[in-house]
């Protein structure tokens, strides 16, 4: 939405331009009629009169022409002065508005905590932002291209304009308060540098990075990335799997983790399911009978995963269960245990 002040100044600039064109037109016609100059000479005399550069006359002027020239000079002083004033004010005000807008956005970013930082707003960065918006997670994007920032920045998608390789930009995005960082830059070396810098500033933050080459995987892990994604490899594997097990992949593609009404999979902390002062098992919870959801995975307190856990598995504190169900069953689970969907 255009700022009202910008609209006012644009209208003033339009008026100034119209006045200048009208002044030029009157000058050319006046000199042509009163002095019988050629069109070129009339334009020349009008321009040097309006701009008051002090060049000589094409031909000596008669008294009537001199009076017209005096009128043209006095009028041009007012109109040109007005035009310069309006244009100068517009440039200064536009810069002030841009600075004010950036300060407002930075203030909003400074208020964030436990948010996600996305480095790079290319294809992967945009997809990550789209998913986070769907899941109502707060995030900040660091992007080096000014045109990209101007095009996509909004209250929902805050940007920090700059190079994510610089610690200053990471700090502006709140890396010291962030919960997670996604490095989606196109260059592997840039991603390694970002991961290394972010890990030095925030030891506890989860870091996810993309990589173009498999040889970069180890370097990113060594730099401090928790997860390294190879988009090309994943895409190739997925396409090949559609050939080998097409029905299975189609089923998996239809599962939804993020959405408003079509969620099929949910990860839940055991503390939300029961009081962990007395340890219970998956059988004790009996989520299948209560909600219709099935427990298909378990993540223990060390972060280790177990697929299709046994019913007698003890649900220790700081662990999580992954449940599968139809959207209405997931909703029933969230409602029964007062689980808020982020």
Walkthrough of the structure:
With 342 residues, the chain is α/β, with parallel strands linked by helices. Helix content is 53%, strand content 13%. It contains 13 helices and ten strands. It has helices at 4-35, 39-50, 63-110, 123-134, 146-152, 167-172, 188-201, 216-223, 231-244, 246-253, 282-285, 287-291, 327-336; strands spanning 116-119, 139-143, 159-161, 180-183, 206-210, 227-229, 265-269, 294-299, 305-307, 320-324. The strands form two sheets. It has a six-stranded parallel beta sheet, sandwiched between helices. A four-stranded antiparallel beta sheet has the order 7-10-8-9, with no helix packed on it. Helix 7 runs parallel beside helix 8 (216-223). It is elongated, with a radius of gyration of 33 Å.
Summarize it:
With 342 residues, this protein is of the alpha/beta class.
What are the salient characteristics of this protein?
342 residues; alpha/beta; four-stranded antiparallel β-sheet; elongated
Write the layout of secondary structure elements.
Blueprint: H1 4-35, H2 39-50, H3 63-110, E1 116-119, H4 123-134, E2 139-143, H5 146-152, E3 159-161, H6 167-172, E4 180-183, H7 188-201, E5 206-210, H8 216-223, E6 227-229, H9 231-244, H10 246-253, E7 265-269, H11 282-285, H12 287-291, E8 294-299, E9 305-307, E10 320-324, H13 327-336
Rg, Å, rounded:
33 Å
Structural class of the secondary structure composition?
A: alpha/beta
Largest sheet: 6 strands, parallel
Q: Low-confidence parts, pLDDT < 50 over ≥5 residues?
A: none
- Give the spatial strand order of the biggest sheet: 3-2-1-4-5-6
Q: How many individual β-strands? A: 10
Portion of residues in helices?
40-55%
Shape: elongated
Could you tell me the strand content as a percent range? 5-15%
Mean pLDDT: 85
């Amino acid at each position: 939405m255009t700022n009202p002040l910008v609209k006012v100044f644009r209208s003033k600039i339009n008026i100034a331009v119209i006045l200048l064109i009208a002044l030029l037109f009157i000058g050319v016609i006046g000199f042509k009629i009163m002095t019988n100059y050629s069109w070129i000479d009339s334009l020349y005399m009008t321009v040097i009169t309006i701009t008051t550069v002090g060049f000589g006359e094409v031909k000596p002027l008669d008294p009537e022409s001199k009076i017209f020239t005096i009128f043209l000079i006095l009028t041009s002083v007012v109109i040109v002065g007005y035009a310069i004033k309006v244009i100068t004010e517009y440039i200064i005000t536009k810069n002030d508005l841009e600075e004010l807008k950036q300060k407002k956005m930075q203030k909003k970013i400074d208020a964030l905590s436990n948010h996600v930082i996305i480095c790079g707003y290319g294809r992967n960065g945009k997809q990550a932002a789209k998913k986070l918006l769907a899941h109502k997670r707060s995030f900040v994007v660091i992007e080096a291209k000014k045109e990209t920032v101007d095009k996509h920045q909004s209250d929902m998608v805050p940007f920090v304009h700059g190079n994510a390789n610089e610690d200053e930009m990471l700090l502006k995005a709140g890396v010291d308060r962030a919960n997670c960082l996604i490095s989606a830059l196109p260059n592997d070396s840039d991603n390694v540098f970002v991961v290394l810098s972010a890990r030095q500033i925030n030891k506890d933050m989860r870091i996810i990075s993309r990589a173009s080459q498999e040889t970069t995987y180890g370097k990113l892990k060594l730099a401090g990335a928790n997860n390294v994604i190879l988009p090309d490899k994943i895409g190739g594997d997925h396409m090949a799997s559609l050939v080998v097990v097409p029905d299975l992949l189609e089923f998996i593609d239809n599962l939804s983790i993020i959405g408003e009404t079509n969620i099929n999979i949910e990860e839940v902390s055991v503390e939300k399911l029961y009081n962990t002062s007395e340890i219970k098992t998956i059988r004790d919870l009996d989520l299948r009978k209560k909600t219709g959801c099935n427990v298909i995975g378990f993540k223990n307190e060390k972060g280790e995963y177990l697929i299709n856990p046994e019913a007698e598995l003890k649900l220790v504190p700081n662990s999580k269960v992954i449940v599968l169900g139809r959207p209405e069953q997931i909703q029933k689970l969230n409602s029964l245990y007062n689980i808020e969907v982020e």
